[in-house]
Amino acid sequence: MSNGYFNTNGEASRPDPAIELIKNRLSNVKHKILILSGKGGVGKSTVTSLLGHGLAARNANMNVGILDADICGPSQPRVLGVRGEQVHNSGSGWSPVYVTDNLSLMSIGFLLGSPDDAVIWRGPKKNGMIKQFLSEVDWGQLDYLLVDTPPGTSDEHLSAVQYLLGAGLSGAVVVTTPQEVALLDVRKEIHFCNKLHLTVLGVVENMSLFVCPNCKVSVTGDGNKAHNLNKR
């Protein structure tokens, strides 16, 4: 183990000076959890929003934040019904948008001129945006910070893990669907977590019980396949 600093090959590298800044910024956040998926379209962002709503609804005194780290495909503003809201910058940093009294959200979607604007950035610029979100958003006291990541295992994921490990990253939740083509990528996602010593808190098999209301056929297969992944 190399203090949690990695380059794009997963190899040890020099620590980024922003890591200490992020550690201090997130010192009031109890649990920091990455939401991962190997493939797009499995419902990762929906699961993230439902998890956020569920945690916030359990206790009115529990504060939950969601960071939409999918820079090129920010969907949380729409999913959570706050598209078009504005973020404000003050001396203490960016203020997230409040979905409810105890559920807040930060997304690059709030910074775009139009929801249809495309973010056409290379890896370093996307990583810089993630770093800026983690170091400059003023979340206040949080019980949970859920980080909705893009699909796959790319630069953004390495950056998020690198920046958050020093701040006390609790682990990751991996979202999949029962199809074998999705499970193939989930195995890679779990391998990614193991390689970076990131605890897999659980695997969510989304849509496993969905049956077509017309033909009564299970659209995604038999389901319960993620249970076997959890045994590995």
Automatic annotation (TrEMBL):
Keyword line: 4Fe-4S, ATP-binding, Iron, Iron-sulfur, Metal-binding, Nucleotide-binding
GO molecular function: 4 iron, 4 sulfur cluster binding; ATP binding; ATP-dependent FeS chaperone activity; metal ion binding
Top-rank taxon, per record: Eukaryota
Pfam families attached to this UniProt entry: ParA
GO BP terms in the entry: iron-sulfur cluster assembly
GO cellular component entries: cytosol
Protein name (Swiss-Prot/TrEMBL): Cytosolic Fe-S cluster assembly factor NUBP1 homolog
Taxonomic lineage from the root: Eukaryota, Metazoa, Ecdysozoa, Arthropoda, Hexapoda
